[in-house]
Structures are given as C-alpha cells and as structure tokens.
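Ticket #4471: structure output looks truncated?

Reporter: J.K.
Steps to reproduce: submitted the chain below (131 residues) through the standard prediction queue, then opened the result file.
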Amino acid sequence: MGGEAVIDGSINWPIGRSKYGFGKFGVTVDGKEALTEFKLIKKYKRNGKKYSLLEINLKTGRTHQIRVHLSYLKWPLVGDKLYGGEANILFRPFLQAFYLKIKDPVFGKEKDFEIGLADDLKEHLELYEEE
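Returned output as attached by the reporter:
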C-alpha cells in the first residue's frame, strides 16, 4: 500500500494535585482517572530538535490533562513553561480546541463548533520545517 503509517495511542494515567508545585497537577497514584487519546498529524524539525503536531481527544476532563499527560511522556507542549515546554517566541502553550460538541442545557440538543488553527499558532508553525 505504501504511505506513512498513522501513529496514534492513548494515555491512561490518573491525575492529581502536584506535591512539587502550587497550582500544578501531575500523574499520581491517588489521582483521578484520566484518559487522553492522541493521533500524530505531522512531524516537524527546528534547530536539530523534532516536534509533532498532535490531535488530542479527551475522554475525561481533568485540569491541565493534556499538558500533564504529554509532559509525563517527556513531550511537553511548545511554549508551556509550567510543564517543561521550552521558552520561545510563542507566549502561550501551543494548544487549541478546534472542535467541541456540547449538549445545549436549555433545549437538550447537541451542538458542534469547529474552527481553524489560530493565527498566532499558524505563524509559529512557519518557523519549523516539515519532516
């Protein structure tokens, strides 16, 4: 068939308050269940380092869940200084919701919302070479 293999997976580790930093969370034995699914969208490189653009699907909604799980794998988000991401010209974590599905609390119908990548994130991606 040929082509590049699709890389995806899931992270199923409990998350709780960190003992090592006020306002931080971490993977901890006594934490609450947290399930994060991911799919590799594209690979990049810059200054000899490799980066990945991932699509994330949260199955639970823990505080800082994406940031905690990826940091625990040693894959911190670009711009996420709190969880180990390198400081750079991006002034926030490279993180954005592009699709949301919610149930309207008044009428009970499901609603879908979808947006493209934010301009600041698009501009930041231009600093990287596709691999």
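Triage note (M.O.): checked the attachment and the full token line is present. The helical segments are 65-72, 119-125.
Status: closed, working as intended.
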